[in-house]
From TrEMBL:
Annotated GO MF terms: DNA-binding transcription factor activity; transcription cis-regulatory region binding
Domain of life where this protein originates: Bacteria
SMART domains: HTH_LACI
The HTH lacI-type domain, residue ranges: 6-60
InterPro entries: Cro/C1-type_HTH, HTH_LacI, LacI/GalR-like_sensor, Lambda_DNA-bd_dom_sf, Peripla_BP_I
Keywords, comma-separated and alphabetical: DNA-binding, Repressor, Transcription, Transcription regulation
Originating species: Candidatus Lachnoclostridium stercoravium
Ligase as UniProt keyword: no
Full protein name: Substrate-binding domain-containing protein
Annotated ranges, domain HTH cro/C1-type: 2-50
Amino acid sequence: MKEKKVTFADIAAYTGFSKTTISRYFNNPDSLTLENQEKIAAALTVLDYKENKVGRILASGRTEFVGIIIPNLYMHYYSEMLNQILATYETYGYKFLVFAGSEKADVEKRYIKELLAYNIEGMIILSGTIPSKELASYNIPVVGIEREDQYISSVNTDNYMGGVQAAGLLSKSGCDILIHVNADIPDSVPASGRIHGFVDICREYHMPYELILTHLGNSFEENRERISHLIDQMEAKYPQKKKGIFMPNDTHANVLLNLLFQRYGKLPDTYQIIGFDNSPISREAVIPTSTVGQQISVIANEAMKLLSEQMTERKKRRPVLPKEPVHKVIPPLLIRRETTI
């Protein structure tokens, strides 16, 4: 026989409270005394209450959904970060609606409009396409990861320290020239710190260096073509010199490594390579790649913790909202593998 579902009326009858009070327990528990909350919680256990999620959403308008916008799933960093964010369900209980925006503002705005139609309670944004001022205007908690964050809370790696670590390792590897490949990133974006940290160490130790600031594309085909062209340039400019290459991420470091293997059947002695992320591809590459490790699981958990705190605060009868965005910085971990001596 089908079990009878326990209703708010049943809980009210058991506890002696009104149905309105029972509803407040689910939708606005802060409005009840701790003693009354404990009485109702005990009744739920005795009655073996099974929550009707759909009914609760309709009653409260709170969906326990969080929206996520990522640039793409091609870059291993983004796919691993998404994996780690999704894993926080066991800790925080929020479900996720995910869109890959392809770094197109009109597309991402359409996705956000769709997310808001689902009454999401907050957003985690990895894409940097839409300015933080616009994101803040949606009037829901937003946490950014590795993007411009003047008007929203964020969790980022200490990118400057990462650049210092990468240049420091390459400078100790007997390289004749250090080269950092990256996009031409504005200082408002945290990843620009990698460039500044790299340059500062090269100058401090009087190491010859070059910055190659160029867009490497958004697909494997584009990456392969443009990085192959970079190899041609570096070999023409620095023949026989030992080149220490700091790539902007592990995906691009792996493409570089694969192209060198295809040309020479090995990693030539004239190349040292370090990436950035410590995404799984750095361990799974044909030669495990040295990398500046972003603590991806820590960043994901901190982002969800920060977002959860803000969403929970907004549910209170008298919420105390932060006057300024909260910014958390996570230290990187230098991971030395087989692509650096």
